[in-house]
Every structure is written in structure tokens, then in C-alpha cells.
Predict the 3D structure of the following.
Amino acid sequence: MRNYSAFDILGPIMIGPSSSHTAGAARLGKVAKVIAGGEIKSVKFYLHGSFAQTYKGHGTDKALVAGILGMDPWDDRLKTSIETAKEKGIGIEFIPTDLGDVHPNTVKIVITKTDGSVTSVVGSSIGGGNIVVTEVDGDALEFTGMYPTLLIHHVDVPGMILKVTNVLYDHNVNVAFLKVFRSAKGQDAAMVFEVDGVLTDEEIEEIKKIPNIKSAKAINI
């Protein structure tokens, strides 16, 4: 049986009108910002389903931009986030599209940074301010952003889970949830660790030194 949180019953603290279209959207934008890191030059929001149809009327556009600027769903500045982004010189574009067989409140966020690098994040707002991220830079994965999260891209060889968990154990980091994904045996793979404490730079740098680790990133929201 599902466990219900206060968010499911009362709804999140937020600037309205809709938990799915504003609170969830702001959280998606903020997670994408943290994943991208660095200074943002421009962002394209590819809006799917209900997001594409009602993003202006329900404030999804303002909420997504607010998240990209690092704002929380309850921040009063959410109402003027698009103007704030323009003042900061950040290019913003909203593109209604069809992302396929996904949740109706789904967005693909493509961030271009000032150094020219590009990060893409696909996620859905699933109700009550809750979200699920399903893709990062083309890699299929899944996490909710409810916990500090460790994203690892690596080569699919034996022992990778053990090596990473040994580092977390040495730093007294408790793992709440672990999911693994791979494109094919022996090729690219991903691990997602949702943990009980904030992940430090020291832990991430130690994990990056493990052979066959391609990248490691902490998402502390």
C-alpha cells in the first residue's frame, strides 16, 4: 500500500495556481539547473501534453524559469521570473512538442551554458508538487529529487556498485534507494543513488577516481 505524505493530502507550499503545473514545474527547473551547473546562457523548454496546452494560463512557463533561476515553488519572485531571466541576459524559449509515450505533464529542458556545453533533462510533474526525472543527457534513468541524489555514468563492468558503495560507506552515507540502468551488456550504464545526507565534493571526487567511472554528479536540493 502506498505511503501518503502531507504533500499528497494538503498540497505543497507554493505560488499557485496548480501544484502540478507550478510547484512541480519549479522543482523540475531547479533540478535541471543543479544538474547542469555553471552559468546559464540560454534554455529551451520542450513542453509536452498538458504542459504544452496550458503552460501560459497555469503559470508553468514562469515556474520553470523560476526553477532555472534557483527559486523554490513558494518564492514570491516566481511571478516575475521571466522578466528576471531577461534582465540577467538568459535566453528563454518555450516549444510545444510531442515527447512520445510519457506523462502529460512532461518537459525536456535543454540548457546551454556560457562555456558552450549543453545539458538536457527530461522530467514530469506527477501531482502534489512531486516530480520524476527520467532522462539526463540522453541516458534513461529515474529519480524523484526528494533525497540528495548521486548520478553516475560508467562502463557496465562487474564490481561497479560495490566500489561506489564502499566509498559511501567510508563516508558514513546511508543509501535510501539505488537504481541501475544500462544500454547494453558491457556498454554505457548509469547508477542513481538516493541518500539520506548531503553529498560532499570530497565524496564525489573520490568516486570519480574509480576506474570505469565516466562522470559523477551530486544533486543536493
In short: Residues 47 and 141 are 20 Å apart (CA to CA). Residues 1-17 have pLDDT under 50 and may be disordered. The domain at 6-137 is CATH 3.30.1330.90 (60s Ribosomal Protein L30; Chain: A;). The beta strands are 40-48, 91-97, 105-113, 118-127, 130-136, 139-143, 149-155, 175-182, 188-195, 213-219.
